[in-house]
Design a protein that fits this description.
Length: 220
């Protein structure tokens, strides 16, 4: 289902992937610095989640400024929260690369505004912890403030997220967290000798099982 979400004096293009049964939880998903919501990994993940009963809303927000992207993401969260079509108990925010930085920022801002528990967790796909070859400057400030569960899915050969550095940051995080390493994958999740579909299947299954663990944990 295609929708246009009002954002300032513009609209954000978005697409709902709707499960057959009435969903209780949703995932809001956005892309990295390049591309848009039709980036193959996002389309694949949205279809997979919807087929497993999770509502997925993916949106496009062009713009290379993280603050701008964060503002857009926040608008989408509010839109879904107030939606009459889907009465959700909670959502997970998810993004790829720069989109995951924006998602982390939103989680921080909303928790500082006194989050009412609508946001259940954060999924970071290829989180860009540092610029290529600039390992001294880490983009970890938001991560260290987050309290809700966080899943990182990163390639072990990601030039923007050195394995040891992410593990170091994660060890300092107060939130419940998990890292799933895609062996030998680069920032774009490409792995020599594996098809894109094969890698995406691994990512999708990981994301879904983590969501399920977290939503179940809450009901225990």
């Amino acid at each position: 289902v295609k929708v246009k979400i009002p954002f300032g004096n513009k609209y954000l293009d978005a697409i709902f992937s709707v499960p057959e049964k009435k969903p209780t939880y949703g995932v809001i998903l956005t892309h990295g610095a390049g591309g848009d919501m039709n980036f193959p990994h996002l389309v694949s993940l949205a279809a997979y989640l919807a087929s497993h009963g999770v509502l997925c809303l993916r949106f496009t927000c062009k713009g290379l400024n993280v603050a701008y992207r964060t503002k857009a993401f926040k608008t989408v969260v509010e839109y879904l929260k107030l939606s009459d079509d889907y009465k959700l108990s909670g959502v997970f925010l998810a993004g790829r690369s720069m989109g995951s930085r924006a998602a982390a920022s939103v989680v921080c801002q909303l928790s500082q505004d006194g989050d009412d528990g609508f946001i259940q967790g954060l999924v970071c796909l290829s989180y860009p912890l540092h610029r290529p070859k600039l390992q001294s400057k880490l983009r970890d400030e938001d991560l260290l403030l987050i309290r809700c569960p966080v899943l990182f899915v990163s390639g072990s050969a990601d030039e923007m997220c050195e394995k040891q550095l992410l593990e170091g940051v994660v060890s300092k995080m107060k939130a419940p967290k998990k890292i799933h390493w895609i062996d030998k994958a680069n920032h774009g999740m490409a792995v020599k000798g594996r098809t894109t579909d094969d890698v995406m299947e691994e990512i999708n299954a990981q994301v879904f099982s983590w969501l399920r663990e977290n939503v179940q944990l809450e009901h225990k």
